[in-house]
Batch of 2 targets.
Target 1
Amino acid sequence: MTRTQLTVNPTTTPAAQRDAARETSPADDRVMLSIEHLSKVYADGFKALDDVSLEVRRGEIFALLGPNGAGKTTLIGIVCGLITASSGSVRVDGHDIVRNYRAARSLIGLVPQELTTDAFEKVIDTTAFSRGLFGLAPNPAHIEKVLRDLSLWDKRNSRVRELSGGMKRRLLIAKALAHEPEVLFLDEPTAGVDVELRRDMWLQVRALRERGVTVILTTHYIEEAEEMADRIGVINHGELILVQNTTELMRRLGSKQLTLQLNEPLQQIPEMLAEYELELSEDGHTLIYTYDTHGERTGITALLSDLSRAGVRFTDLRTRETSLEEIFVSLVSPQS
Amino acid sequence: MNLRAVQTIYLFEMSRTFRTLLQSILAPVLTTSLYFVVFGAAIGARIPEMGGVSYGAFIVPGLIMLMLLTQSVSNASFGIYFPRFSGTIYELLSAPVSSFELVLAFVGAAATKAILIGLITLATASAFVPLEIAHPVWMAAFLVLTAVSFSLLGFILGIWADSFEKLGFVPLLVITPLTFLGGTFYSLDMLPPFWQTVSLVNPVVYLVSGFRWSFYGAGDVSVVASLAVVAIFLVVGLTAVWWIFRSGYRLKP
Ligand SMILES: Nc1ncnc2c1ncn2[C@@H]1O[C@H](COP(=O)(O)OP(=O)(O)OP(=O)(O)O)[C@@H](O)[C@H]1O
Ligand SMILES: [Mg+2]
């Protein structure tokens, strides 16, 4: 197995790196994760996964996007051996996760959603412990590298309970990388991590991908999925509603709303503003403009100058992203 | 076989023990001394010899068994309950480790600690009464087999328990009474015939008796019966653990 590389190039912006990376995406044809007709019914009769099928190729970054309770953690849990599937099968690099669990699990690193750590252990010990569990010989150099890459080396002799929440999350990542996995599952990796470190983490995930590691992550945030993933799978109520290239999906989802609070209520929308397809609230006090962030132009500048020409004055304005919920509605509704 | 993982878990569990080394040693030394002050010196002085040995010497095997049973059960149950409680069990379940290896590591560590404490108890006792061990090999065998069987039992308890209350419940309400009523501090023939018969369904009677036989060459029941009971315990424990991992009981939803 090759050593984990987590080099970060600070000179380029994340976005530029991402776009560059996507063009030279190292994803090859080897299927690393293959899920077929996977369903899960919990003991209480709740159906958490409903006939999910999915393939992820080597070197891909795949984001599972879905609201609370969609079934993301359940899906990851089954692949990693924490939850028993009700039906269907999963293979990791061709190894069935039940019949050939040793081979399958050796390839997998898991960063769980919950911050579960041994409070009384030292950072370095618990990281080395994870490596030993996977049957690998001790490798202090690798452990040091992983801890350094996650900015935890200075904390190596601290007890886990002395770490902050964000540090604990990074420690979980370090533990998952300690055995040099080929497939990395990150269940909400950036929850509770500050903006700067979040950027760092994104870069590191991409660096992992560069050396052929396949990354599957979950998130509630469209921006995060957009920022990191090559492909996005949208999951809701246990069903994988769609799987698409990030760029294509973003084109489809990237609408925003501009809401204007008017000075004077309007009876109706002036003729000359018809082309903007504005919505007027019942009481005539608010105007809503929906636009595409990925379009050539948003039309906001033109709208604002046309508004003043039409003599419409406003006291306040705000913009808002389409919420996940609205996106699910738009995805499952027939016209989309 | 992922021996490295077994070793990793075993050493991790043992390091937990050594972190609290002083407590681990002090507790049994203190308890044993108290028992000897009360039962050996104060009360024992008025009790005639039992089966050719002084009362103080008579209670040593029972006392070691008492320590062994409670330590095995509490170490093993805590060892597996804690990762379940804290959530760190995810790491064990997602590692390329078989259930056999998992049991080997956890039960092995719990039994090791229990045996160490048994030996400390023995050493402490020898400071109070002159000891002779008639069958040292059998003594060691009883020590190890009992520690392993009851660590298995503790392991099962740690998987079954879903609260700290339940975790403390079994040792307190089952193990301790069974040990006290198991001929630890008396010989069965001191009981009325009816209670002698009742005692024969208490498995601890067989353990204490077999263990005492390995010290003084005599016990309440035959040594074959004692061995059979230990064997039954082992088989029942192993079967239960096998079923737990097969069904994912309390481990995998
Ligand atoms: N052990 C369990 N028993 C019964 N139901 C469960 C169990 N674990 C999860 N569920 C249910 O299954 C559904 C999916 O849960 P899951 O944790 O997979 O969601 P998720 O997509 O990860 O959500 P989140 O974004 O909040 O983490 C939820 O409705 C949850 O209540
Ligand atoms: Mg989740």
Target 2
Amino acid sequence: MSGGDTAGRLVRPFTLTGGRTKPDRTDFTLITSVTAVDPQPDGGPRPQPEHLRILRLCERPVVVAELATLLDLPVSVITIMLCDLLRVGRITVRPPRPVSRTPDLELLQKVRDGLDRL
Amino acid sequence: MTGSDSAARGAAAAPDAVKILIAGGFGVGKTTMVGSVSEIAPLRTEEPLTMAGLGVDDLDGIERKQATTVALDFGRITIGDDLVLYLFGTPGQQRFWFMWNDLAIGALGAVVLVDVRRPESSFAAIDFFERRGIPFVIGVNGFHGEHPYSPEEIRDALALPEGTQVLLCDARERGSCREVLVALIDQLIATSARGDGAAVGPAAAS
Ligand SMILES: Nc1nc2c(ncn2[C@@H]2O[C@H](COP(=O)(O)OP(=O)(O)O)[C@@H](O)[C@H]2O)c(=O)[nH]1
Ligand SMILES: [Mg+2]
């Protein structure tokens, strides 16, 4: 089953998302931080295994790109599953720091100090 | 004090996240640079191309086997409890450019790596950031630690906008990569302090 057929590899993840290929929320970026709600809400449908894996991984805040790597799934698939979890109130989401054309000095100075310590 | 800092600390207590892009042609040292400064081994995700916003027409002329996925690698630098910097290596091949738009959103700026043996492979990246007014610096990756050209010669050869910083670096060395990142941040600080928001580069389109 390890043949070079990439089609199989691409199809499988989307069976996890019920065949949907587009998230219904666009507010997940690569560095949007996701955290499981603690305690998890009672009731509602039982999360699927892949959803449970996400919930375990985001007991502490973790960004979308990291989740994709940890689960070896495309960001696009992760995003769809995160939409599901967000809809049923199992995760909270923190968008990245907004960056304007003139990012604030305090932020930049912090980044610079951090790089100096590297 | 902007005053927004404590209020913005969300219920999840997730740190703020910012990102810098590492761009340039294929094989120029992007992944190497990400790995040199990241506190974790460069992470990689594979995106199916069809999911990333490509219309069917866009796939014309692209070999199917090669067109199925695009790899994206990234690294992390924890600045503090409340701030994490992510570095994203942009996909090198031109046909993956549609991803750059997504990547560029919310980026502080970019490092464009150049290999002086084939500088043309980084023209497209320079052009991309210039057009969008995204701040960038040039990192000249001296393969085998060799730097046959001066920054001025490279600036001329690349027809860079006035004031573009050109830094000679070694993508394999953390200290060297850090200097390039610091140069970018210092440029942003200078711009921010001036408050004019003008990216180094050509005047805004009229
Ligand atoms: N000798 C030498 N090799 C390098 C240097 N930077 C990158 N490489 C090698 O060049 C190849 C391409 O680098 P990579 O970081 O994967 O390029 P990318 O395609 O831009 O991500 C790899 O085999 C690296 O090990 C360098 O400064 N000196
Ligand atoms: Mg690479």
